[in-house]
Amino acid sequence: MTDKHLSSQFDSELANLSSRLLALGGLVETQMRQALLALTLRSGEAIEEVLAIETRVNAMEVEIDGQLSSVIARRQPAAVDLRLLLAIARATANLERAGDEATKIARMVRVIVDTGARELPLADLLLSCDLAAGLIAKSLDAFARLDTVAALAILKEDHIIDREFEGFVRKLVTYMMEDPRMISESLNMLFVAKAIERIGDHAKNIAECVIYVVKGEDVRHRSLAETEAEITGPEAGR
Description:
This protein is mostly helical. Helix content is 86%, strand content 0%. The protein has a single domain (2-232), classed as Phosphate transport system protein phou homolog 2, domain 2 (Methane Monooxygenase Hydroxylase, Chain G, domain 1, Up-down Bundle), CATH 1.20.58. Helix 1 packs parallel to helix 3 and helix 2 packs antiparallel against helix 3. The longest helix has 40 residues, at 2-41. The two termini are 32 Å apart.
């Protein structure tokens, strides 16, 4: 009965940590949507909301890290439980960094507003930002369900954001070559585009955590084809 009670307590602690991770993810999603709003409308109110959420995200990261350390020290977990705790730690760090990128976007929008910069075509950039925010949401859903198929789809979708980034950079280079007066504004937009691309990378990292928990395989430095074979190949159901 004692072992059963301890097991129940441990399960409860794992569930609580997973819940806190998803709550952190919800905050970061809100932060990113506000950053997108700031970029779209050049909204000072949205900028301030992003910065306010950043403080909450940082505090929650510290809280989750403390809980993780306590659980690992007291429970000394093994196998899948240890992988889950390590994955929560990785996912937490990636969410906090995604929030940092959203904050960078908001601060750069403030610079753009304060300098009275002229309008640059934003359609591609807004699409990328929306894709990145959606990818974070999908990665959290995959983590909540420990869904490796959904995680694989996220790894594939990250390549779309990468291509959008590369295309946007080419357009900015064209603007700067055609009108050197646009160099400063274009560089600001390049900074924003890079932050968006990094958010996509963090979503990808969280998806890789899902695969690590379920499969026990670290796929961070594997090709997409190798990862897909791990998930969908003939031995995937082992």
